[in-house]
Write a structure and sequence with these properties.
With 185 residues, this protein is of the alpha/beta class. It has helices spanning 3-10, 19-36, 43-53, 119-123, and strands spanning 14-15, 56-57, 62-63, 67-69, 75-77, 82-83, 87-90, 95-97, 102-103, 108-110, 112-113, 126-129, 132-134, 139-140, 145-146, 151-152, 157-158, 163-164, 172-176, 179-184. The chain has a seven-stranded mixed sheet with strand order 3-6-9-14-17-19-20. A five-stranded parallel sheet has the order 2-5-8-13-16, with no helix packed on it. A five-stranded parallel sheet has the order 4-7-10-15-18. β19 and β20 (179-184) form a beta hairpin. The longest helix is centred in the first third of the chain and has 18 residues, at 19-36.
């Protein structure tokens, strides 16, 4: 394993232009091209591609094309979970999705962080990542964006179009930009 891949996996600054990481993203993209080209009746083929791509795909879970991610192997999806159309999971850090999760169309789970104040580091393509964890039985409305480092507690509902910048506790309805707790559930 190369230095930049090791750094990425440890959550340390790394360069995304590293040849090993570029090759891993190309491998993922080839699998995604295959997955996204399937037809509605090719359920077994879709499942096989997802199992080759993802770190874990729980029993009874499925994703509807179009789906995009960076690496795939850093994504773990529990049992009986569902990702709707146009999900984007930028997985330069782990993304863990629990059991019985429903994620609406055009959701984005984004783990990548880029230097803000260090303009030269950003120009040289240094970045880091922070993991995202989604608890069991969470429901995201359409267009939800989850930012790096966020944990969403079990049994929480996030309203459509919300931008989740901070952790959300269990059993709440949260919405808005930035997303905040509206009430308990």
């Amino acid at each position: 394993m190369g230095e930049h891949r090791e750094r990425m996996l440890r959550g340390e600054p790394y360069r995304d232009s590293d040849p090993e990481l570029v090759a891993e993203r190309r491998r993922a993209q080839a699998l995604l091209d295959e997955f996204n080209a399937t037809t509605a009746d090719q359920i077994d083929q879709r499942d096989g591609v997802l199992r080759a791509l993802l770190g874990r795909l729980g029993e009874g879970s499925w994703i509807v094309p179009r789906f995009q991610c960076d690496y795939g192997y850093l994504i773990e999806i529990g049992a009986n979970s569902f990702l709707n159309y146009d999900a984007i999971l930028m997985d330069c850090a782990p993304i863990v999705i629990g059991d019985d999760v429903s994620i609406g169309p055009r959701a984005q789970l984004l783990t990548a962080l880029h230097p803000m104040a260090d303009h030269e580091a950003r120009r040289q393509r240094w970045e880091t990542g922070a993991p995202i964890t989604i608890g069991d039985n969470v429901w995201f409305g359409g267009g939800v964006i989850v930012c790096p480092g966020v944990t969403v507690g079990a049994n929480t509902v996030v309203g459509a179009g919300s931008v989740v910048t901070r952790d959300l506790p269990e059993r709440v309805f949260a919405a808005g930009n930035p997303c905040r707790v509206v009430r308990g559930l």
